[in-house]
Prior knowledge:
Layout: E1 2-9, H1 14-25, E2 30-36, E3 42-49, H2 55-65, E4 69-70
Helix pairs in contact: 1-2
Amino acid sequence: xxxxxxxxxxxxxxxxxxxxxxxxxxxxxxxxxxxxxxxxxxxxxxxxxxxxxxxxxxxxxxxxxxxxxxxxxxx
Length: 75
């Protein structure tokens, strides 16, 4: 298992948390997703998965969830 934390922008509410969590959990090998919401700011999203996820996988899931993006700096 591996755990990584990402800084994500664009999240403002519980709906955002649900959408991001759902899309990330749909990725192969993802076991758990925890979101620390900073409404309108930079939220922290921690993902536990069987194997490390690529930046492209995470960005793709965020794009599918809505208008959410990885912040330039890691969490």
